Amino acid sequence: MSLKVVTFGEIMLRLTPPGYERLVQARNLDMTYGGAEANVAVSLARFGMEASYVTKLPKNPLGDGALEELRRCGVDTNFIVRDGDRLGVYYMERGASLRGSEVLYDRAGSAIANATLSDFDWDEIFAGAGWFHFTGITPALGGELFNITLEACKSAKARDITVSCDVNFRTKLWDAKTAGESLGKLLEYVDICIVNEEHAGELFGIYAPGKEKDRDAFNRDMALYVSKALKDRFDLDKVAITYRRTISANENLWWATLYDGEDICISPKYHIEIIDRVGSGDAFAAGLIYGLANKKDLQFTVDFGAACCALKHTIEGDFNHVYFDEVKKLMEGKGGGRVSR
Amino acid sequence: MSLKVVTFGEIMLRLTPPGYERLVQARNLDMTYGGAEANVAVSLARFGMEASYVTKLPKNPLGDGALEELRRCGVDTNFIVRDGDRLGVYYMERGASLRGSEVLYDRAGSAIANATLSDFDWDEIFAGAGWFHFTGITPALGGELFNITLEACKSAKARDITVSCDVNFRTKLWDAKTAGESLGKLLEYVDICIVNEEHAGELFGIYAPGKEKDRDAFNRDMALYVSKALKDRFDLDKVAITYRRTISANENLWWATLYDGEDICISPKYHIEIIDRVGSGDAFAAGLIYGLANKKDLQFTVDFGAACCALKHTIEGDFNHVYFDEVKKLMEGKGGGRVSR
Amino acid sequence: MSLKVVTFGEIMLRLTPPGYERLVQARNLDMTYGGAEANVAVSLARFGMEASYVTKLPKNPLGDGALEELRRCGVDTNFIVRDGDRLGVYYMERGASLRGSEVLYDRAGSAIANATLSDFDWDEIFAGAGWFHFTGITPALGGELFNITLEACKSAKARDITVSCDVNFRTKLWDAKTAGESLGKLLEYVDICIVNEEHAGELFGIYAPGKEKDRDAFNRDMALYVSKALKDRFDLDKVAITYRRTISANENLWWATLYDGEDICISPKYHIEIIDRVGSGDAFAAGLIYGLANKKDLQFTVDFGAACCALKHTIEGDFNHVYFDEVKKLMEGKGGGRVSR
Amino acid sequence: MSLKVVTFGEIMLRLTPPGYERLVQARNLDMTYGGAEANVAVSLARFGMEASYVTKLPKNPLGDGALEELRRCGVDTNFIVRDGDRLGVYYMERGASLRGSEVLYDRAGSAIANATLSDFDWDEIFAGAGWFHFTGITPALGGELFNITLEACKSAKARDITVSCDVNFRTKLWDAKTAGESLGKLLEYVDICIVNEEHAGELFGIYAPGKEKDRDAFNRDMALYVSKALKDRFDLDKVAITYRRTISANENLWWATLYDGEDICISPKYHIEIIDRVGSGDAFAAGLIYGLANKKDLQFTVDFGAACCALKHTIEGDFNHVYFDEVKKLMEGKGGGRVSR
Amino acid sequence: MSLKVVTFGEIMLRLTPPGYERLVQARNLDMTYGGAEANVAVSLARFGMEASYVTKLPKNPLGDGALEELRRCGVDTNFIVRDGDRLGVYYMERGASLRGSEVLYDRAGSAIANATLSDFDWDEIFAGAGWFHFTGITPALGGELFNITLEACKSAKARDITVSCDVNFRTKLWDAKTAGESLGKLLEYVDICIVNEEHAGELFGIYAPGKEKDRDAFNRDMALYVSKALKDRFDLDKVAITYRRTISANENLWWATLYDGEDICISPKYHIEIIDRVGSGDAFAAGLIYGLANKKDLQFTVDFGAACCALKHTIEGDFNHVYFDEVKKLMEGKGGGRVSR
Amino acid sequence: MSLKVVTFGEIMLRLTPPGYERLVQARNLDMTYGGAEANVAVSLARFGMEASYVTKLPKNPLGDGALEELRRCGVDTNFIVRDGDRLGVYYMERGASLRGSEVLYDRAGSAIANATLSDFDWDEIFAGAGWFHFTGITPALGGELFNITLEACKSAKARDITVSCDVNFRTKLWDAKTAGESLGKLLEYVDICIVNEEHAGELFGIYAPGKEKDRDAFNRDMALYVSKALKDRFDLDKVAITYRRTISANENLWWATLYDGEDICISPKYHIEIIDRVGSGDAFAAGLIYGLANKKDLQFTVDFGAACCALKHTIEGDFNHVYFDEVKKLMEGKGGGRVSR
Questions:
Q1: For the whole model, what pTM was predicted?
Q2: Between chain D's N and C termini, which has fewer beta carbons within 10 Å?
Q3: CATH code for C4-340?
């Protein structure tokens, strides 16, 4: 039987002008839902795993809409608390070529941001679960969210549930110093940490040697250095690092590494033309969880995660509507796309 | 030269599912902007009058969008304060037949709701103005909004500017008792009061005799009774009352009366098939202001206001994109529509 | 074998804002093609008749688009001349309830308006044809169009081809006096004349007795009076008169009469909720031509025409995409609609 | 705890041209899913009941889409068999005024139409269930569907599960004689039968006295006569009859009666402007099941069902996205719509 | 006078989610029509040639739609048989970057797939024709389609009509062995054969030397080897081979060769960013037929075909809406695009 | 205080098929407004400068639409004359890859093309202005437009207003010889001239040495040669030259040079993936005006203009909806795009 994965965070209404219109030009908006941890839950459900998403949603049609979209994708929504004032919203202006995408957040005062410790009964939530995943966005939401996340981590740990954290540092929510300290406390309970190379430096002061001379430099030793430093600092089981190089707003390179204390494996470097990059990091996290939870080896796991991430860039919306066989096909080089090895 | 009219209140982003879809079904949303007092300003500008709209908007693309839509329609936006956190949003689910329209407000924490007395310099704003209009929504927004509105009223009065108020009671913002007391204080500074028959009763306890037996009853004497009571209570110059009878969610009857202490005039009773009824009361208010500011007689004024209101029901969005000649044509019975006299 | 019908006139690009938006609100436009005589040709082709449409279209993608839309509907386009500067355009703002529809023409300088006598070889065009139909719009286009139409009429007459004319008076193209005189000259060559009750009065001074007292009055004698007067004045074979009563911009009554010198037949009076009324008169003309060309009796013919017209009001665009069986079904009262008899 | 309801039948992809376009005009199609028994399941889930839908869907993105849409609405999809060749499709051309809606079925060869007895394990499906609902469409699909439905009925009966059947006769699937005989066999196992007045006559030869003179006639005695005859013929527990009068393609009257052997209750007669009438009968069936399963009295039950049905006419798509409180509000006359009592 | 070309095959309704949405995300579908041989006919008509398309279509609005779309493009539809049950449908999910496009066929039981020998009178169809074109899809449709195609070939041959075949092997319709044998029998009657390099190997076992070491290898000698082998095996007049290299799902290289037994000509190698690649092979075939039928030389012909194919990749839908002058302009290097020579 | 810039020319309705559809395929059109000089005015207003646009617009909803779109963007519309027959229209077919974009003009007979000298009172228009900008399109419109432009230039010169001209040669409006002579006369009054390298040759016979051998050649000396020749010929203050290299219809290189008689500065060479290239030259002109009017140095000015132009390629419609900070960010290399230096 499949392992049950619990994820916890904020899901928002996402409003996107059609095509490449700017918000100020727009006259209608495409309407989807998304949020880092919800995105992970959807990916896992798409791969056939049992995924439960925990959040707090207002009792109104937008709260219903978010819940129903998750349920549609096969995510368990039974532990979603229904109360509070509003659903957070974010507006996504799609960039192209020399103009980057812009995100406008309108998430203050959301039901989850105002949630309290008593909203969530982790004993009940974690019953039957084998994995808990959260990202650095959740404790950054303010109010009691750090404490709630901490309690969730402790409760998971007490039950021998594997805990993974995607660092996901967002400067619009908190500063690097606070983020570094807060996440540091949570990482004590974490087994698997996912972070991109910049955040490893900004939050934890861990920089690969040589990086200061060439910020685009990358090699196995540099990855190993950072991974080992993170593992040692926070007593982690495994460390995944992600790398992005921006050719233009719609053309990127992307790859990742995964370290287990002994070995470090490097994924293929994907050359990606972008349809929608929101949620691509979450797609990687989901792929990683899938691989580890299903006892795949290190190389398969990082390759699977990277292929998930690459495919997500071609899918509209936050959720990665791709299936195991499709990821596998890309890993085997049958997708026909442009992979720079 | 045309009289300059100042209006003050909240403009929101309005998001509407296409056709008759419910929010929970929707996958995209039509995007317009609207708010009671902004709607009045747009109507007046469409009639060729000088209209200035005062509010506070965040410095982001949605604040820009609201301001630009007003500017597009010819409204003076020079006294709009740009600061604060967010633009209020409302979602509008169009009803039909036996299913009424539903509005979901997401306006808490908007820039204008958090405005302070020091945000607005009424001396500067009222320079050159001849009329000030607000509705009961503005003081209901909470925070300092009642005090700001009061200050605006006093400042206008001190300059001999005509002040009009549309009572516009909204139960989602405050209760009838608070509304009645607060508006009562503001009405001391008001010359022209617009109110629908229900609110006259609910807020001020003024009911036409016979109404208790038949809530749909209407005749000249009943209108006169309520108008006179309001005029006397608040020492008003003129009182307009509006009447709506709902045949179905998309078929209504609508008419109004206008009383000047001597005479009461009754508009035609319009039989309306509804495309979009939001802003129809504001369209009436604008027509009334147009008539009075341009020294039209009582009957013309209430007829013009009612024709504005009737036409608004056929226009998509909050703003009433109709012109003087078109209103005139309907008043003269050349519109071809169904008027129940 | 089916009789070949030739129609001659202007087809335009029609641009329509979605739903009930006004032009000044619109951000995109629906794109169809239409024109009185082209509409007739399409209806006839839909009924399985051979219909050839004659006009002049520019050699550009819009000229191609107009021609291809006709060809798609089965109309013979082999006698369309390809040359000239531009395709005429009209913008159609859909009205509702108390707001009437508005049409904005941008047709000056179109290829057909600048056509010359030498553009059309009527001998070749009329080879094998049994019927020629035009409307009062064609000679009103200015330039040589009156002369071209006159030549077409003479050529048709010389070949014993039945000629029908729908008076279709448009005040935006010419005044009533000029129209009356010009059409009068053309009607000398016409066998079947279609006209609505107002135009019979405005252009030819023929008013039913009693009309001056009640402009909505209608009875068999009044219809007979006007029909007979027209028949006698222009030595016509048959006269059809159409009647519309406007309840609102989207609710009309419509019926017609047909007179052959002996008998006058009156169609059912249809109560119509309108989706798109443009082309409804052309739909009637097509139904009339169908009935007469196929030797149906007088009552069937006027009933068939009226049913065509009623159905057209429910079809989006100028062209009446309905089939014989569907018209028949409505005539037999099986359409389920609201018919006021 | 809520009673679990099982429904069984075919869900199809529904493709609808936008607005009032005909299929031959359309260039894009709105995409939803629907089918009589699935519609009932969605309604019940919307009312908070446990509803399980049983069918067979192909393993392709359209099969996924149908399943996911059901899951989104809260329907249990665990007993849906995934196999077979294709998903049935139907094209829905929306009519208006004098032009009726047209449906084009493309359902031959669908996964469910080719299902076999061994596809469904009714013991497992009915575990924990208290109600089984099917319609006359399911046994009409051909192949083994009659036998599968019969087996389901027998299995339900053996477990003391309440069985309801909506007769739903479709001439495009079978003739009245076959339908009458087949449904007669199934009705032996049915407790609650829903039928419209025409089908009671066509399939079972039961006509109210006086109906032959006036097909629109209706009174309590006529309803009682038919209900009693049906109850006696098939030894039913309760009989619901539905009535529709067509004013135009978008304006109908609708009401129902419910008989329990002692009493007959008549619902209000709703005057409905139609947005989308597909699934309105299913909405009534769901309301009826809700009332009876929750031990409401006869009058409440038929009134609740009729209000569900009336509201469905205002909802786009097959599924009735309305909630208990909204139906209640309409029943209490607070919906503001036009109810002819 | 232009040569008349007859093509024969299946045209389907094509339904495409907007943008890059997956089918499971889609809420509406773009609606076009297409099929290999119909695509060729449209291209030829766009180039001003007389093209007649032969198929069988159901008598319903979708059959009408397919026929009308062909007629709109100037294709002769007089030999289309109208009968049978349904129109085949295919769903086209547009890929991007690393995610390939996906096609879901729903074509079983289509009118043409169930056609019989007696449906087509080839004597009548071929009267006045000079060329017959079919593809390997037509005989693969099952039922009597192989025999009907064979009869058409024989009938064409007997009349000295040039016969061309595009091998177009589709694994979803039949296996390589059956396809190779069946097409082998038909190729006996074929003058011009078009095939891509893979199918030459898979169906006929003809591989260029060196291909096994490098599947992307290409040079003149390799092309000559395969062309000659095909020509000799099937006694062909000319052989065209097409080559595609996939950089990503939306970036391809494409070129072709044409051999006449003496000379082999190689087209430019086009570097193409793809809007819609469906029908690009058919565009090449049409260009080839145009060149040969109009007695152009070998190099012009293959260059013209390749330019047609390259342009098709930029056109939405199956049909290649480009004109002779546009193809010519690209051949002359004036299109401004990226050509790798 | 910001300098007021006056621009003068034609604004048209722009109608664009969605996505990459051709006009002949389109069924709806996106609706924006644009024109070379209006585009410049909008850019300047977006940068916070005072910009007044002068033209003549018909009194109809399309004239209103054009004016309102300008007003929305903050452009002063007080000197727009409202009269005349029609608004010019242009249809824009978006190209891709090997298929270039196509523009179809329908601008003959527009209000501005028929304007007369007496329509514009330049004394009033230029009151308070510091800069006048026009392009070579305006005098090419025919009628009195050359004389009106000449009068504007003289009037500006007489007031010591800086005059800039973007040569913008359009072969569809006039031939190179006429254009060269006419613009030559106007350039006598111009201070700043903007021209692309081809037009410098075609209109004024000024070719960089070596260009004949390699039309893609570029170096500092070549730019200097042409700039100096232009400066000397027309006694200009500054000369800007623009350069475009087409990789494909949606991938271009673009850069510019700016010469002040002493120094020549070269902008970065931008590698651009194109969303919409219309108006990109106008975006450069606006950037140039911004830099020079705000006393920026030569290098900043040409870099700012080039960054404006590069960003415009990513914005839908004619108008460049970008802000100063966004242009600055790209200049500082923080946009993340692909810049070839």
A1: 0.96
A2: N
A3: 3.40.1190.20
